[in-house]
Predict the structure.
Amino acid sequence: CVHLIYYLPTYRDYTKDFNYFAFGLNEELLFKFLATTDSVLIIRFHPADTLRRKKNPLIKSNPRIIFENNFLSDSFSLLKNASVLITDYSGVFVDYLLMNRPIIFANFDHEAYVGARGLDWDYNKITPGPKAENWELLLFQLESIIVHQKDEFWEARQKLKDQIYKFQD
């Protein structure tokens, strides 16, 4: 069974050179994890970010990492099939709640992001999943979910889903 990991980070309009992979990423450990767990990481940047990223690649090429650049495609079909969602401040996690599958919040630049953009809600109360401040913690959380099949936030996701959605089918 291939594990589809879908990473949808929020656009960083407060900086021109934000690097999503600068927060302690060990590429070899990521590549090894993806291979040993039969996982594929699909990354979908915001359209404005995608144009920037084409000029300045941030990570080595790997057959288990796919950069989704077709913004006419339906991201919901990928969400529906994802084993795990990784996001940060994007509201896409609210849609993914309907699947009630694990979500990891990669809040690498939390202080800078909140300082520049602000939030309309209490981040820790509204995000039902582990927080990863760097790639080492992100890989640890992925291993916990995929390898050890631990899901400590199932109830929190269900509770938030019940608060948000009247109809869940």
Q: What stands out?
A: The longest helix spans residues 135-146. The CA atoms of residues 97 and 161 lie 6 Å apart.
